[in-house]
Amino acid sequence: MAPTKVLTGARLVLPTGTVDDGRVIVEGTRIADGGPPGPEPVGGSAKAPGGTETVDLGGHWVVPGFVDLHNHGGGGASFAGGTAEDVLKGVHTHRLHGTTTVVASAVTGDLDFLARHAGMLAELAQQGEIAGIHFEGPFISPCRKGAHDEGLLRDPDPAEVRKLVDAAHGHARMMTLATELPGGLDSVRLLAEHGVIAAVGHTDATYEQTLQAVDAGATVATHLFNAMPPLGHRSPGPITALLEDERVTVELINDGTHLHPAALQLAFHHAGAGRVAFITDAMDAAGFGDGRYMLGPLEVEVADGVARLVEGGSIAGSTLTLDRAFKRAVTVDGLPVEDVVRAISVNPARLLGLDDRIGSLEPGKDADLVVLDAGFDLVGVMRRGEWVVRPQLG
């Protein structure tokens, strides 16, 4: 029997606010308690089997494990077209950076290939390695294709959308659509009926068309600002519609490349911390390094941590990890830690329908947590009660 783990001397970010000199008690895979110091649990000497293992965190932050809704890979491995071993390698890479829950994102490809690949990803989801599948493409606009192969794009036929959903065997979590295309609104309705998030993205929609999509059931903006028309004073476009509608959560890639800090501030100011989800949109190079990679069928050059298509130069995902997004949000963007926790853990867990298990430090939930030092650098990661990165404390 694993010992009870008691993490003491922590700055805890709880749903009720931040607690200084707090503690978290972990029993097995779950959080047993979390809050101000209290009586020590009974159970024998430290590190004794069935006893109590105590870790004094010396004032470090403890926040919920990060939840990434939109991620294509990492560690040199791809979620979009790799083997099961590749996916597991990428998942482990992101766990080392605090992402204890990850949705595997596919990119545009041949429909039959996507269906077969979804079957493999569904098995990993069944095993609890990933939280489900996000289909980004092929039902997106050629006008805003970004790093997607234009030759494989297609209008969102509800029958084909249903084929991919069925291929995921209940593990399809989200699909990004250009909802202005023929069949777009019917596809949104189909996804909503099957409990799959319909996300507006890679779109050339007008303001009015975007509102129609939200009315039909779309609830997420795929990497807001990117791969969609810019905000205009006479043509407000999808950005305005998605920011102003209380039913929509907006994804943001906070890597300093995809968004100007003022754009991020605009999104937080207008949508509020309760409607923002930080994502990575990571590709293979995340946590790995510069070089040449494949994103689906397209070749990508990563230089100085920025991924661009070899042909055309479009930004091709990111090399971001969520620990870097967290640190940047606090130290560069000046956001309150509590708001960052909402954007990086609470909100994505809610969107996935998993907030009864993950996303916050509450009794009964999975013991998924991240330890950050005073400068918001990652020093520890726990997933389901086991250390992925054990804090090395002086």
From TrEMBL:
Q: Name one Pfam family in it.
A: Amidohydro_1
Lineage of the source organism?
Bacteria, Bacillati, Actinomycetota, Actinomycetes, Kitasatosporales
Under the heading SUPFAM superfamilies, the entry gives: Composite domain of metallo-dependent hydrolases (SSF51338), Metallo-dependent hydrolases (SSF51556)
Q: What is this protein called in UniProt?
A: N-acetylglucosamine-6-phosphate deacetylase
Q: Which PANTHER family match?
A: N-ACETYLGLUCOSAMINE-6-PHOSPHATE DEACETYLASE
Q: What class of enzyme is it?
A: hydrolase
GO molecular function (one): N-acetylglucosamine-6-phosphate deacetylase activity
Keyword Hydrolase on entry: yes
Q: Which UniProt keywords apply?
A: Carbohydrate metabolism, Hydrolase, Metal-binding
Q: What is its EC number?
A: 3.5.1.25
The UniProt annotation puts the region (Disordered) at 29-51
